[in-house]
């Protein structure tokens, strides 16, 4: 498990590093097309080869990492920012109408997979990377609300919460002082999972044209463009796919490792 | 049991109502209404107004929603702007591809996940468990559409065993099933990986329960205990995940149809988006969401079938 | 006849059992007593061959000369449930919640013989009748959640004895049950041993249970049997110092003290006055449950009052209302003349006059806070005084802990120490009343005796009033001046502790007193009143 976590942190770290590096430097300039060098296999000059416009795939992949990570990260932020307070409030009023309202609202949002939300938004406002963020972010809200409520409910039955009530503390103060710190582990782990799911979802949305738009490179769009070329130059399709798999795998391994490291009680889960 | 059923049904109806209202109002946000879109930019104001009132677009929003809903309940989704044909028929035709694909994928995922999860749980902490769980980690990380491309590359391009895309129609059942095979595998494998992990952890969790110890003290072997007592108790979280997976599979099917050029709901939606045929998008999304809500309802019924404690409440 | 010889179990580097020799004859009851962690349950699991996978076991477990430890797993499965049956402590979770009770009992018969379902169910019916779950009230089609704890324990017994085993192992079978239910289950077990010629290994922490039931006793401490023999002789002799300590602690009564002017002599109005309190829960189907039904009581300044009753009698609900956690539907609770109300409507100054100590030493503290912050939490009511550091140190010292402990986390303390910390937390804002909700029930006897002594001393030093809630009359007797008995939401008896216990008036009290396990007076001998030590 230790080894898995180190591997996971390494892979995820690599993706982050590539994304950060792409802000200041990429091996080649991808705005320059070089048709003469199109679809070249990997070489010393182009470690991952070139695409149908002769652009360097390594540079494209680095820029793609930036979009994927930014979208997934913001979407996790939206999910946590709205979902965690909702979950805390529902748990604090467990059994009451507020709880019922939050949970039914959750169920309703669950009926709209992020792809469906993206379709709706695109139908109205047209496609963009912001769509992907909103669509994935909205779907993350009930996930975090549920995890938060599920983690908070057993804590509300514990005597230390009773003691805090006897010490005159209200629901909001108890939620902040006792509940939130005790479910922080849970949220960190869920955050990693949603981060990796967000990368997968962003790739899917970009692939079908509902996410990042040209000329912004993204892993999903690179795959969409590669689809017709897959028999001619397989590396064009394989490299972006591997980027996704390795980043997601890394995040999942990291999440599992964190789960074990942070909370021995959860060792058996998942 | 009856009370439980009744409450779930009321909840089902309410969810459908709210979801449909949401979808309706989102599409209402679109600048420009269907009438102006149908007539194009050069239309005369009088013609536009006439068409508007003919389509009922000059009426207040709640009323239009009520009419729209009433029509849908009678199976009338309206007409496509681009094709001028009833949408209900188009969607029904496309569903004959998307629904079998999603169901096939779900069955395939379950068929793969159950033996794998049971195997891993029974060998918990041993090398077999670690190997299988490592494999599922990889499975979860696979984007299904990329996996689909790889499958096409291997089975269609290199080995020439299966078609790379297209759909011959259900007139040729064998060819139709063959055409759906690779898409179903591409959809199912990542979901199977998730399901196997959930099953494993649910089994391990139940195996720590007191009644498992009681079963062992009765003289059941570890394997018998797993099959007879742990499995059924582990079904509750597994059912939850399977219900959620169905919605992922339906959504995933939309993407996968693009890889295999399948004439399913997904292709219809993307065509409609590019043609700004909003009423088709609206209808297709409604059908998708209704399917997801209906599956949630079925999962709730399955809970009650598994757990007697729910029936009494 | 089952015999363990030189049984030892190690997990990793720690030796959990060592040199355990037990002889368990058919038709005899052997009590295995000791404190938590002494290895009692481990012994049972070793006999059953159900030790955790990484445990290493040596020695012999002989079943009519056959060494079970050398038996392959398949053969051991044929022994479990057929020749040795076992029941566990927690009846609420011991049965499969998704399976009918008839099928759960029948399953034992079907796995050991190729019996068809109908025949097995017929036998299951007969076994359930034997344990007191007869038709038509208890059909085979019931699910566990439709039964009470005691009834579930009976199902567990029925399936353990379905095959008429030679030995039944009962691991704390009544610890999770009420005294009256405990008495019924113990009577059932005694009858089964007599009728079915079965041996019984009864594992318990309660010396009084063993005294009333067992033919032989083995006393266990840190994995070893320190003393064994026929029950009466062993109890009279108390040869080993550890046996003496256990014995003294389980009978320990803290020295009587007079706090305040004594009951009835205080001219001040009562500290706590409850009048006609009612707490009603709405149930599904339009019915309602009056969990607290017209309760009136008073507690004087400096008085210690015990509140006793079976689980479900409403004492926990009443406690929550007194603490201002739940609202009442009728009646009033007044603390020092001021109205107690639920939630944030209750003024902090009023809340500060009352604190609480809970049962569970493990759930009472936030694991992420240090002791200093935990103990200072009640200052939320009063504002943190400038001398809080000194008050914290004083509170820690008063409960026998050191000021250095303030920087530690809660997991660094034992169960008894945590209960001391809980008392310190209640004490730090100097309340007039401390509610002790089953505050010593989860503690081992020797630790319990120490905590009771501490409570008595604190009351004397600070003139505190206690409301001591417990299901255990013998504990209440040691600490309360006055005892209230609650049944079905009502107070059915109210009187001086000794009088209530020695001459109970109400039917409910009489049942409780009769069910109380006791060590016969004649066995106690000269060492009565010996103080708890260690």
TrEMBL record, chain A:
Listed transmembrane segments: 67-89, 110-139, 232-255
All residue ranges annotated as the ABC transmembrane type-1 domain in the record: 65-255
Keywords: Cell membrane, Membrane, Transmembrane, Transmembrane helix, Transport
Keyword Calcium part of the UniProt annotation: no
PROSITE patterns given in the database record: ABC_TM1
Signal peptide (UniProt feature, chain positions): none
Family: Belongs to the binding-protein-dependent transport system permease family.
Name of the molecule in the record: ABC transporter permease
Organism encoding this protein: Paracoccus spongiarum
Classification lineage: Bacteria, Pseudomonadati, Pseudomonadota, Alphaproteobacteria, Rhodobacterales
TrEMBL record, chain B:
UniProt key word Transport: yes
Domain annotation ABC transmembrane type-1: ranges: 95-299
Entry's localization field: Cell membrane
Native organism: Paracoccus spongiarum
UniProt family annotation: Belongs to the binding-protein-dependent transport system permease family.
Record membrane topology: Multi-pass membrane protein
UniProtKB keywords: Cell membrane, Membrane, Transmembrane, Transmembrane helix, Transport
PANTHER family, alphabetized: DIPEPTIDE TRANSPORT SYSTEM PERMEASE PROTEIN DPPB-RELATED
Main subcellular localisation: membrane
A Pfam short name: BPD_transp_1
Transmembrane segments: 99-122, 134-155, 175-199, 234-256, 284-306
Residues making up the signal peptide according to the UniProt record: none
Protein name (Swiss-Prot/TrEMBL): ABC transporter permease
Keyword Membrane on entry: yes
TrEMBL record, chain C:
Tree of life domain: Bacteria
Gene3D superfamilies: P-loop containing nucleotide triphosphate hydrolases
SMART domains: AAA
The keyword Acyltransferase is assigned to this record: no
Signal peptide region: none
Keywords of the record: ATP-binding, Nucleotide-binding, Transport
ABC transporter domain: residues covered: 2-247, 272-513
GO function term, MF aspect, one: ATP binding
InterPro entries the record matches: AAA+_ATPase, ABC_transp_ATP-bind, ABC_transporter-like_ATP-bd, ABC_transporter-like_CS, P-loop_NTPase
Family statement: Belongs to the ABC transporter superfamily.
Record's protein name: ABC transporter ATP-binding protein
The organism's taxonomic lineage, starting at the top: Bacteria, Pseudomonadati, Pseudomonadota, Alphaproteobacteria, Rhodobacterales
């Amino acid at each position: 498990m230790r080894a898995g976590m180190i591997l996971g942190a390494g892979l995820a770290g690599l993706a982050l590093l590539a994304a950060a590096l792409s802000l200041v430097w990429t091996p080649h300039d991808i705005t320059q097309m070089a048709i003469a060098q199109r679809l070249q296999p990997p070489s010393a000059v182009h470690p991952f080869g070139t695409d149908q416009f002769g652009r360097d795939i390594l540079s494209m992949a680095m820029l793609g990492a930036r979009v994927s990570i930014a979208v997934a990260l913001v979407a996790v932020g939206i999910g946590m920012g709205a979902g965690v307070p909702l979950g805390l409030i529902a748990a604090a009023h467990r059994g009451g109408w507020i709880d019922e309202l939050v949970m039914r609202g959750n169920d309703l949002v669950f009926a709209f997979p992020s792809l469906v939300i993206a379709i709706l938004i695109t139908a109205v406002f047209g496609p963009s990377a912001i769509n992907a963020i909103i669509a994935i972010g909205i779907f993350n809200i009930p996930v975090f609300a549920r995890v938060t409520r599920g983690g908070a409910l057993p804590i509300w039955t514990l005597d230390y919460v009773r003691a805090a009530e006897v010490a005159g503390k209200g629901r909001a103060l108890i939620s902040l002082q006792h509940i939130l710190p005790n479910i922080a582990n849970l949220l960190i782990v869920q955050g990693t999972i949603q981060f990796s799911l967000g990368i997968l979802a962003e790739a899917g949305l970009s692939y079908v044209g509902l996410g990042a738009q040209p000329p912004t490179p993204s892993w999903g769009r690179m795959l969409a463009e590669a689809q017709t070329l897959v028999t001619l130059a397989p590396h064009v399709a394989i490299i972006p796919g591997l980027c996704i798999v390795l980043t997601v795998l890394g995040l999942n391994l990291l999440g599992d490792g964190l789960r074990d490291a942070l909370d021995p009680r959860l060792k058996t889960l998942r | 049991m009856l009370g439980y059923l009744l409450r779930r049904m009321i909840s089902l109806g309410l969810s459908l109502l709210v979801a449909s209202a949401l979808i309706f109002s989102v599409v209402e946000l679109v600048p420009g209404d269907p009438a102006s879109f149908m007539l194009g930019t050069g239309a005369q104001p009088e013609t536009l107004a006439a068409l508007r009132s003919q389509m009922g677009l000059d009426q207040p929003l709640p009323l239009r929603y009520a009419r729209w809903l009433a029509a849908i309940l009678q199976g009338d989704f309206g007409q496509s702007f681009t094709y001028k044909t009833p949408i209900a028929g188009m969607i029904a035709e496309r569903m004959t591809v998307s629904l079998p694909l999603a169901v096939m994928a779900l069955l395939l995922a379950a068929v793969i996940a159950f033996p794998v999860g049971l195997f891993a749980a029974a060998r918990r902490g041993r090398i077999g468990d670690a190997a299988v769980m490592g494999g599922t980690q990889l499975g979860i990380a696979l984007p299904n559409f990329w996996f689909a491309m790889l499958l096409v590359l291997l089975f269609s391009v290199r080995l020439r065993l299966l078609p790379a895309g297209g759909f011959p129609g259900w007139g040729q059942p064998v060819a139709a099933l063959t055409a759906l095979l690779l898409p179903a595998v591409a959809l199912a494998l990542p979901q199977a990986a998730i399901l196997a992990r959930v099953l494993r952890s649910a089994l391990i969790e139940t195996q720590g329960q007191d009644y498992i110890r009681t079963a062992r003290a009765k003289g059941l072997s570890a394997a018998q205990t797993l099959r007879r007592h742990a499995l059924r108790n582990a079904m509750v979280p597994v059912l939850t995940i399977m219900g959620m997976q169905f919605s992922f599979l339906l959504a995933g099917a939309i993407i996968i149809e693009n890889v295999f050029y399948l004439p399913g709901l997904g292709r219809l939606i993307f065509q409609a988006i590019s043609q700004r045929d909003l009423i088709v998008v609206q209808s297709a999304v409604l059908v998708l969401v209704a399917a997801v809500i209906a599956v949630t309802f079925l999962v709730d019924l399955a809970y009650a079938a598994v757990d007697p404690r729910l029936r009494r409440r | 006849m089952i015999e363990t010889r030189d049984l030892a179990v190690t997990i990793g580097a720690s030796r959990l059992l060592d040199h355990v020799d037990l002889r368990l004859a058919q038709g005899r009851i052997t009590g295995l007593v000791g404190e938590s962690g002494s290895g009692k349950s481990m012994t049972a699991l070793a006999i059953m061959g159900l030790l955790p996978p990484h445990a290493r076991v040596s020695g012999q477990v002989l079943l009519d000369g056959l060494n079970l430890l050398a038996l392959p797993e398949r053969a051991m499965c044929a022994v479990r449930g057929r020749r040795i049956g076992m029941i566990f402590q927690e009846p609420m979770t011991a049965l499969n919640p998704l399976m009918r009770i008839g099928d759960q009992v029948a399953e034992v018969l079907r796995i050991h013989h190729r019996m068809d379902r109908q025949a097995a169910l017929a036998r299951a019916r007969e076994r359930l009748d034997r344990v007191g779950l007869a038709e038509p009230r208890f059909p085979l089609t019931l699910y566990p959640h439709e039964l009470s704890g005691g009834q579930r324990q009976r199902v567990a017994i029925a399936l353990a004895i379905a095959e008429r085993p030679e030995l039944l192992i009962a691991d704390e079978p009544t610890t999770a049950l009420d005294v009256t239910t405990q008495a019924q289950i113990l009577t059932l077990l005694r009858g089964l041993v007599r009728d079915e010629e079965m041996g019984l290994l009864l594992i318990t922490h309660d010396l009084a249970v063993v005294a009333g039931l067992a033919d032989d006793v083995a006393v266990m401490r840190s994995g070893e049997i320190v003393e064994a023999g026929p029950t009466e002789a062993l109890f009279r002799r108390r040869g080993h110092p550890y046996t003496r300590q256990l014995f003294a602690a389980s009978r320990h009564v803290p020295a009587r003290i007079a706090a305040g002017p004594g009951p009835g002599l205080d001219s001040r109005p009562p500290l706590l006055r409850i009048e006609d309190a009612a707490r009603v829960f709405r149930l599904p189907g339009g019915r309602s449950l009056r969990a607290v039904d017209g309760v009136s009581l008073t507690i004087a300044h400096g008085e210690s009052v015990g509140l006793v009753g079976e689980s479900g009698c409403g004492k926990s609900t009443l406690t929550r209302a007194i603490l201002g956690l739940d609202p009442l539907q009728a009646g009033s609770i007044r603390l020092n003349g001021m109205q107690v109300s639920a939630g944030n409507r209750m003024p902090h100054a009023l809340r500060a006059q009352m604190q609480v100590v809970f049962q569970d030493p493990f759930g009472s503290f936030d694991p992420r806070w240090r002791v200093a912050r935990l103990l200072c939490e009640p200052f939320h009511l009063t504002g943190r005084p400038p001398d809080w550091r000194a008050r914290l140190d004083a509170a820690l010292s008063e409960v026998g802990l050191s000021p250095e402990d303030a920087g530690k986390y809660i997991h660094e303390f034992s169960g008894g120490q945590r209960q001391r910390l809980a008392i310190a937390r209640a004490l730090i804002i100097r309340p007039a009343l401390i509610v002790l909700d089953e505050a010593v029930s989860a503690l081992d006897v020797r630790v319990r005796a120490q905590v009771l002594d501490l409570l008595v001393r604190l009351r004397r030093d600070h003139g505190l009033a206690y409301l001591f809630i417990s299901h255990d009359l013998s504990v209440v007797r040691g600490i309360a001046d006055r005892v209230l008995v609650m049944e079905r939401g009502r107070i059915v008896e109210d009187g001086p502790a000794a009088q209530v216990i020695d001459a109970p008036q109400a039917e409910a009290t009489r049942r409780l007193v009769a069910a109380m396990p006791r060590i016969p007076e004649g066995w106690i001998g000269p060492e009565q009143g010996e103080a708890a030590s260690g």
